[in-house]
Amino acid sequence: MKRVLITGAAGFLGSHLCDRFIKESYYVIGMDNLITGDLKNIEHLFKLKNFEFYNHDVSKFIHVPGELDYILHFASPASPIDYLKIPIQTLKVGSLGTHNCLGLAKAKGARMLIASTSEVYGDPHVHPQTEDYWGNVNPVGPRGVYDEAKRFQEAITMAYHTYHGLETRIVRIFNTYGPRMRLNDGRVLPAFIGQALRGEDITVFGDGSQTRSFCYVDDLVEGIYRLLMSDEAQPVNIGNPDEITIGDFAEEIIKLTGTDQKVVYKPLPTDDPTQRQPNIDRARAILNWEPKVSRAEGLKITYEYFKNLPEEELYKKEHKDFEAFSRK
Ligand code: UDP
């Protein structure tokens, strides 16, 4: 049985990856410090003989007994609200956390895949974004803690690849959605659906002309799986190129949920990228991958998930006590 370590296992993407590797008959070791993750996302795995969980902060030395074939490093706050609230942890998990994972991968002879992000392109001047674009990032803006941690993460991963000969994979993940997103993490999709479910106005930031391209989580997981199994050490964009303005997206959510609330406009957050769309030619060519789930299908499934959450989740102001973690 091949053994895989997944950091950020209790998070949105991490938990879906755990499911996928369990389905592929791996022995899965999940790791998370539960700052933004939630055990609810993986509790269905606890009864399995081929799953175990470590409550550990990967920014500190990681000890895992036994062999490891693969490490997938998905631990990180990933919503702009989260990394505004816990900027130091965001920097640490992308830098120290990645260094620890790389050291572990080297010691175990494991192949390592890191979760990078379209945020490495910043507010891009090249559209759609290709992997050879270097980006336009403000290091000292509010997003800098995430963007620069992820850029450092790519750099140190590439250094381990070239200097130590470690087998490494870098996925640049574009906006992804699906069940197990946190309802109150501030991201646009759960924000809009949460507002519709609570009967509140839909808050569009700026004039709504900024664009995003949303990928359904199952498509993303398939792309990541293929990348891990490939020979490609250069970064690969995984995302859905179907681009939409946030204003039009708000209208789609209003139609989907049948809410009779109206759109209200709020100030655009600092350094909010004006456009984002992946160029996925490399993924198509190397991985024979492209997304299969349309936004209409994916949104329906995701809306069902949010609708069926216990009502108190809807009114929870914040999922976690960030303050308590910040003092650690
Ligand atoms: N956004 C919005 N209303 C909200 C939350 C977000 O209009 O209630 C906008 C946000 O300004 C950004 C886009 O939606 O332009 C996507 O934001 P998100 O936080 O989901 O992720 P990002 O892609 O910016 O990292």
Draw up the topology in text.
Layout (H helix, E strand, L loop, with lengths): L2 E5 L4 H12 L3 E6 L18 E5 L14 E4 L6 H6 L1 H22 L2 E7 L26 H21 L3 E6 L2 E2 L10 H11 L3 E4 L5 E3 L1 E2 H13 L6 E3 L4 E3 H12 L5 E4 L14 H7 L7 H13 L3 H5 L6 H6 L1
The site of uridine-5'-diphosphate has 16 residues, from helix 5 and strand 8.
Could you characterize what this model shows?
- This protein is α/β, with parallel strands linked by helices and 328 residues long.
- The chain folds into 2 domains: 3-176 and 215-238, NAD(P)-binding Rossmann-like Domain (Rossmann fold, 3-Layer(aba) Sandwich), CATH 3.40.50.720; 181-213 and 242-274 and 293-324, UDP-galactose 4-epimerase, domain 1, CATH 3.90.25.10.
- It is built from 11 helices and 13 strands.
- The chain has helices spanning 12-23, 80-85, 87-108, 144-164, 188-198, 217-229, 246-257, 281-287, 295-307, 311-315, 322-327, and strands at 3-7, 27-32, 51-55, 70-73, 111-117, 168-173, 176-177, 202-205, 211-213, 215-216, 236-238, 243-245, 263-266.
- The strands form 4 sheets. It has a 7-stranded parallel β-sheet, with helices on both faces. The protein has a two-stranded parallel sheet with strand order 7-10. A two-stranded parallel ribbon has the order 8-13.
- Helix 1 links the parallel strand 1 (3-7) and strand 2 (27-32).
- The protein is globular and about 55 Å long.
- It starts with a strand and ends with a helix.
- The relative contact order is 0.14.
- It binds uridine-5'-diphosphate (UDP).
